[in-house]
């Protein structure tokens, strides 16, 4: 069955679960909103949002060097306890994040990390493109918003489609791991090196 986007969005706001998880829960519940909440809770996905403000002081710094040694990544992923940091599930998550950064080359962790002037510059470019293609004034901002969503999916790690499962974003993958491991998990920082590539000023 087709689930209206506004219902999916409402479920996301209420539970903090990812878009695809909300959509699947609503489909499983045949559109029953309250039943979808119960399904998400049973899977532990709604709990991820409640853990988001918990302090993370443990974790791992991991490296990934692509075959041939021409591309490397260092990433710090934090969790709440050393116990979870030592689990194979957490270590797999950190490795997956490293490989994601190597493959997809994000510039930022999340949207809030992008400087306002960069966002405004991108919006101005998309606005100019839309105007020059003769689009009516009333739809310009919608077009710009759509292009910005694609931009976020390119440059923000959390918005990128997960390389191992493009049906979910890295944020949704992280939410699944938070639900599975029962702790808040945060990608703190990363750096990506390509041989011979100059650092941007």
User: What assembly state would you assign to the polypeptide chains in this entry?
Assistant: single chain
Q: Output the number of helix runs.
A: 9
How much is the radius of gyration in Å? Answer: 19 Å
Q: Major sheet: order of its strands? A: 1-2-5
Shape: flat
CATH topology assignment of the largest domain: Tetrahydropterin Synthase, Chain A
Number of strands: 5
Determine the strand fraction and express it as a percent band.
15-25%
What is the mean predicted local confidence, pLDDT?
A: 86
Helix content: 40-55%
Give me the CATH superfamily of the largest domain: Elongation factor Ts, dimerisation domain
Question: What CATH first level of the largest domain would be assigned?
Answer: Alpha Beta
Order of helices and strands: HHHHEEHHHHEEHE
CA-CA gap between termini? 50 Å
* CATH architecture descriptor of the largest domain: 2-Layer Sandwich
Q: In total, how many domains does the architecture comprise? A: 3
Give a brief rundown of this model.
With 201 residues, this protein is α+β, with helices and mostly antiparallel strands. Helix content is 52%, strand content 16%.
Provide a descriptive summary of the structure in words.
Strands 1-2-5 form a three-stranded antiparallel β-sheet. The protein has a two-stranded antiparallel sheet with strand order 3-4. 52% of the residues lie in helices and 16% in strands. The chain contains nine helices and five strands; from the N terminus they run ααααββααααββαβ. The longest helix is centred in the last third of the chain and has 19 residues, at 137-155. With 201 residues, the chain is of the alpha+beta class.
């Amino acid at each position: 069955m087709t689930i209206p986007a506004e219902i999916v969005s409402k479920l996301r706001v209420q539970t903090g679960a990812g878009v695809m998880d909300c959509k699947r829960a609503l489909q499983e519940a045949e559109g029953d909103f309250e039943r979808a909440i119960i399904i998400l809770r049973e899977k532990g996905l709604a709990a991820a949002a409640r853990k988001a403000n918990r302090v993370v002081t443990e974790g791992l710094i991991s490296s990934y060097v692509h075959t041939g040694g021409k591309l490397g990544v260092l990433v710090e992923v934090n969790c709440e306890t050393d116990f979870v940091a030592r689990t194979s599930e957490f270590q797999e998550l950190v490795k997956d994040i490293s490989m994601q950064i190597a493959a997809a080359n994000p510039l930022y962790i999340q949207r809030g990390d992008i400087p306002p002037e960069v966002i405004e510059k991108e919006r101005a470019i998309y606005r100019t493109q839309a105007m020059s293609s003769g689009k009516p004034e009333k739809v310009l901002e919608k077009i710009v918003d759509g292009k910005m969503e694609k931009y976020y999916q390119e440059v923000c790690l959390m918005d990128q489609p997960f390389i191992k499962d493009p049906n979910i974003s890295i944020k949704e993958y992280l939410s699944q791991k938070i639900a599975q491991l029962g702790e808040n998990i945060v990608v703190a920082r990363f750096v990506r090196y390509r041989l011979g590539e100059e650092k941007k000023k």
